[in-house]
Design brief:
The protein is of the alpha/beta class and 219 residues long. Helix content is 48%, strand content 11%. A five-stranded parallel sheet has the order 3-2-1-4-5, with helices on both faces. The structure holds magnesium ion. Magnesium ion binds next to loops. This is Hydrolase of the HAD superfamily.
């Protein structure tokens, strides 16, 4: 039986990961809640596993500011969360026309698409407004599934949402968080992309340099 379903990673696969912009926004958030910017950025990076599956954006601001000795007002927390959400919305809107055209071509050929993303809660909230959302039949976000790649649960959640077995799926991603090995472990065929970042260079096989190359690769 052919593999007909495609499961995509989001950041550094469909849109840029924008790590530098994220840190700049974190520094502005630190200023809003009155804590040291470098310490706030560091605390943020150190708590990624909590942020992926447990804390929402407001909790994250309150908990990290608290750990750094501040007690921000609700208005300050709201302001900081707004900065984070504005960046998230911008990142999700930043899809190139060739990527959208490739997704449309794959769908026209009968492929069904699902997203499988390690991300924080606000990305899941903002997803429906992204030009990507209408192309995807399903999306599995780590805060909603309460599991993050490479945990088999989140891959199964994406495949189940399409009503297919994982061994009928391709997984397309840059390779962060060990996601390629995780996908292979549940039976998905893996395609690595280097469009935005060469994250997992030792992964075997020829990567694609752009999502648009998928159209030929899967023909
Ligand atoms: Mg990624």
């Amino acid at each position: 039986m052919p593999r007909n379903a495609l499961i995509f990673d989001l950041f550094n696969t469909l849109v840029p990961g924008a790590d530098a912009e994220r840190d700049r926004v974190l520094e502005r958030m630190a200023e809003v809640v009155g804590v040291d910017a470098a310490a706030f950025v560091r605390a943020h990076h150190e708590t990624w596993s909590d942020r992926l599956v447990r804390w929402d954006a407001a909790e994250t601001v309150r908990i990290l500011a608290g750990r750094l000795g501040a007690r921000p007002t609700p208005a300050e927390v709201d302001h900081a969360v707004r900065l984070r959400r504005d960046l998230g919305a911008e990142l999700l809107a930043n899809v190139t026309p060739p990527t959208l055209a490739a997704l449309d071509a794959l769908r026209a050929r009968g492929h069904r698409l699902a997203l499988c993303s390690n991300t924080t809660a606000e990305t899941a909230d903002l997803w429906p407004a992204s030009p990507l959302a209408t192309r995807f039949a399903a999306a599995a976000f780590s805060p909603q599934v309460r599991a993050a790649k490479p945990d088999p649960l989140i891959y199964h959640a994406a495949a189940d949402a399409l009503g297919v077995r994982p061994d009928r799926c391709w997984f397309v991603g840059d390779g962060a968080d060990g996601e390629l090995a995780g996908a292979a472990a549940v039976g998905m065929a893996v395609i690595r992309t280097t469009e935005f970042q060469d994250t997992d260079p030792t992964w075997p096989g020829e990567p694609i340099a752009a999502i648009s190359e998928l159209v030929d690769r899967l023909r």
